[in-house]
Predict the 3D structure of the following.
Amino acid sequence: MAPESEPQAAPFEQPPAAQGQRTHPASAFVRVWIWVAAGLFAFGRDVLEGGGDRSLLSVLWVGLALVGVAALLGVVFGYLSWRFTRYFIDGREIRIESGILTRKSRRAPYERIQSVDIAEPFAARIFRLCELRIELAGGDDSRLSLQYLRHSDADRLRHLLLQRAYEAGSQAVGAPAPSQTAEGEPGQPDGGVAVQGPHVDLSPPILVVRPVRLVVATLLSAEFLTPAAFMLVLLVVGLVFPGFVIVGLLPFLFWAGQVIMSRVIAQWDFTLRRAPTGLHVTRGLLSRISQTIPYDRVQAVVVHQAALWRPLHLERADVTVAGASRDTDGGGSSATLVPVATPQEVRMVLGELFADVDPETVPRARAPRRSRLFAPIGWRFRSAGSDAHAFVADRGWVTHRTDVVPHAKTQSVVITQGPLQRWRGVADLTVHTPDGPVEAMGRSLASADVRGLAEKQLALAREAREALGES
């Protein structure tokens, strides 16, 4: 057939017919625990409201009935959800169709794929399954996931999707190195490329954070010590008012639990490796997470140092990634670049992202003494400055933070000055980046310094974008 006689593909044309694949059948049982928990909650409520009129045997029968019915409903719902979920991989996109009563179809063109990661939630690990997470360009709600697959299937699909994304010209995906290729192999998506690969990334790690260091750093952090101090005060008060303590402790126990979950459990056995497209992170005690931080999507970095960490020479680094979906494993831990490390290790990792950026060498303008009205102690720790590569801002004394923004990532520059600040001759300077943990603010600096830094930052940002051809 002559090329001109071939039909033209419409923008929203149905993809070529392909046989959909199902996830692993055991996926139907992975989330039954949620229904069992609901049954236990109903049982507890029934016991509290039923009083002590019933015998112990009748109470146990009611409990078994509630939990059993909940578990049965969970199995039935899980089976139907698994039965009506299929994924399709054709020449242009991956499509996931799901829904029992209301059908839902989500499509991801290969050129929009930013990364493909493997996660192992705790319940899925019991069944030796894992989840494949596909990050797309577009911000919130930009993640597709396949729940749940065997590790070998997840590895094969990950390599296949990265290969297709690279061939489609995705800017965030480098060329993977398939170890085996076979055409039309039975059981493979759309009879196409089948790629085998090990589940474990065998590249040597550039940073491993030991659990002992995680635990010590968490116990010495302000985020943990604050609720711990409140609980200690409540326990002392409880010597006089016992009933008040039980109610008052609950929110602080929840607060401390959240800190432990995000700083210790979620970051357990944190390992960082170089990958062709970014830094590859594996972490987690209960739920094992494997994710990639793409080099070209990193917008800025913030380095934290708690006051009690300074004698131990420890720091933590978080990162803002453009278009990243919201965290799903609790505590915002997916924004963590380094949970705890020495300053030399943090600078080494920062150098992996921005080769020319070294915050220690950037000259700063410090907050003047007259700004102590706004921060009687913290004004000594406030400064901001820039060199040829990045803007850097410092602030905080209980927990000191250093925000680093490469010039090419600058979105806008804002100067703010309130009435009291005008009286004292100081102002704030903010360098905006996409939403994330980084807040690059020079607080209460001398007005003349702020104007000079703002003009310089705008010029450097413009030059950096022109050098990248973004103008």
About this structure: The radius of gyration is 27 Å.
